Amino acid sequence: MDTPDTSIGFSELGLAPVIAQTVIDLGYETPTAIQSQCIPHLIAGRDLLGQAQTGTGKTAAFALPLLSRIDPELRQPQILVLTPTRELALQVAEAFQGYAKNIPGFHILPIYGGQGYGLQLSQLKRNPQVIVGTPGRVMDHIRRGTLALDGIKALVLDEADEMLNMGFAEDIDWIFDQAPKERQVALFSATMPPAIRRVAQDRLVDPVEIRIVSNSETVDTIDQHHCIVTRFHKLDILTRILELEPFDGMLIFVRTKNATTELADKLKAHGFAAEPLNGDMNQEMRERTVERLKQGQLDILVATDVAARGLDVERLSHVVNYDIPTDPSAYVHRIGRTGRAGRAGRAILLVEPRERGLLRAIERTIRRDVPAMEPPSAAALSESRIDRFIAEIRKTMSEQDLDFFYRLLARIGQEQEIEMMDIAAALAYLNQRERPLNVKADPPPPPRREWSAERPPRNDSRSRERDRGESRPRPERDESRPRQERGPGRDQGDLASYRIEVGHRHGATPREIVGAIANEAGLEGRYIGRIDIQDDHSIVDLPKGMPPEIVNHLKRVFVRGQALRLSPADGAPRSAWEPRRDAPAPRFNQASGQDKPARPAGVRRQIGDGSGPRRGPPSKDVKGFRNDRGPSRKPRD
After folding, report:
1. For the DEAD-box RNA helicase Q domain, which residue ranges apply (predicted)?
2. What domains, with CATH codes, occur in the chain?
3. Phi and psi torsions of 346, nearest 5°
């Protein structure tokens, strides 16, 4: 871990005297690790690739040396800083303005989308020396001819990883092409994915690479756990965790800006003091929200990765990843918001069954296991609520004057002839109607644990041969014999037939049906049975005992623009191998030695029943489809 050299001060880093004096006036005594390592190289004019998390003093690391090199007499843009969001652009611009307050004639301009062009055009006419902006609005001004990069001496990419994640790669390339070839480039990123490496290789010349591992990245000091939960029960599990976990301040991460407001509203409806923190908030609103958290007026912030950059609040004791990050490095960055400066921190990760691969990728990145935790049970939740109820009663008895209520209850008991215990029971019931003390139902476990069959055991002799690198010669297949379809991979008595309202008329294929059902139900495709695609509907065999919420959700899943509207075939679930009433008697299959249902006349061939010439994809495309392969399959938002 890189640490600052406390033996040197800012005056020894080569800063211009006016900048060094400003730093002293601001009360800075010693540089941070990234400042002490970056400032000398940037003053020397070197290109630089820096990896450091927000909160390590990164802005000063590039602002102070670049301000030391500008020419205040030259009235044209000399420094261009690109940021992913307008909030970060405003923060960086404010920092530059503070560091340059003693430079005469200095002007800086933040330009970003959402602000009117008129104000920005009038400010550009003042020829500011520093431009801080988002890529889209910077491109607009360059194309309009209102911003020229001819005099740019230094170009900075701040939060470069986030800019690439937001799709600004082509914009950044275009802006680089408009800037002079002889310019200094500084690229800063909290993570270092391959895309950032490619940008550095293409755009930086002989760069100095500096990596600062902050205390927040050493995740060993943070208590981490994960909980496997279906998408339909995430909110229920989260609210139970909030009730049972003793926390001071909490940061909950989601993937999208819309999700921050939706989840915050749901938590407020459950009685929690929660607010969103996202890129749609202006700087004043953001600062007010963070200040409320610091002052204890808020307990929970629901944020995106970008909005939480730079957030450092001592009250944050917990971080919950409501949506698992697709980039493992982002997980380290998220949980680094807690457990700072030796304080205790706890991180909880909610993982959907199909996201187990992402969990494994995170564990490989942090080089340790993230232990599993069981979802809070109904019994534990009930006990916690009862304890709080008793505590409230004791507190009220010790702090409040209850004489009026004693007389009132005595009057009710006398006039209505009701026992005091009955009155107390009725009042307790009325008090807990919104949040019952007796929680009866536990959330059902994830589908794979509840109704998925185990993978059949491997053939030991064949696996031993495979381990030794040997293989058995495959016998020649007699092409004159009809190909036998591979049977389903599980006991067909465990399946039930369902009707879905999508068929040949809509262009549906078995692969699309299996993919949609497997992905939405958290079910491996090999546990989906036969699929009979007819003209305006299809029959699909699914495991018996699916949770009602899974069935209800599948009704609203779309394939080829059609809602599946899943319903039991023939009005009620039945075994996939149970013959219909109008079906002929089962015929005996001499090859397999098992009874096999005959296909009724006029009924289309069902995928995987082995009858007739094969049409469409082979059965392995239906039963072998997997939906839990981790990072290769991007989770739906």
Report:
1. 8-36
2. 10-213 (3.40.50.300), 217-377 (3.40.50.300), 379-431 (no CATH), 492-632 (3.30.70.330)
3. -135, 135
